[in-house]
Design brief:
By secondary structure, the chain is an alpha+beta fold. It is built from 2 helices and 6 strands. It is globular and about 30 Å long. It starts with 13 loop residues before the first helix and ends with a strand.
Length: 137
């Protein structure tokens, strides 16, 4: 007797769909699964990108507003996103510019009503530093 697994999800919400998608994404490499917060931040990052809206997040003790350009896994298997920082603090002292952020270092992130201007000048689609891209501009 053959058993088939239906990989098509039933009618579900947008966030439910992303949870399902992230499950499939992580099934490819079980040794490098997203931690709980990383999954939520990845979903929020992709939602911001798809809705063309900015994210407000905490990173390195600073509040930042960013435009997501890509999110996925780097060569080390870490969950990351490539962003253009629109405003906020940083260790370098510059409030705008390109940043690669590790999702496990983001304690909080939320979608804003501010429109994203992505893609910004200098953006490289299919960035080779993120070989497993889940979403991108």
């Amino acid at each position: 007797m053959e058993h088939a697994i239906d990989l098509c999800p039933p009618s579900i919400s947008f966030l439910g769909f992303f949870s399902w998608l992230l499950f499939l994404f992580d099934c490819q490499t079980p040794e490098a699964n997203f931690q709980g917060g990383q999954t939520v931040h990845m979903m929020i990052a992709c939602e911001a990108l798809n809705a063309a809206r900015c994210l407000e997040l905490r990173y390195d003790r600073y509040t930042r507003v960013v435009e997501v350009h890509a999110a996925g896994r780097n060569r080390l298997g870490e969950a990351v996103m490539l962003v253009w920082q629109v405003e906020g603090g940083s260790n370098s002292g510059t409030s705008t510019g390109w940043r690669r952020l590790k999702l496990d270092e983001i304690p909080s992130a939320s979608l804003t009503n501010q429109a994203s201007a992505a893609p910004r000048e200098g953006y490289l689609r299919n960035d080779p530093t993120i070989p497993r891209i889940l979403c991108q501009v």
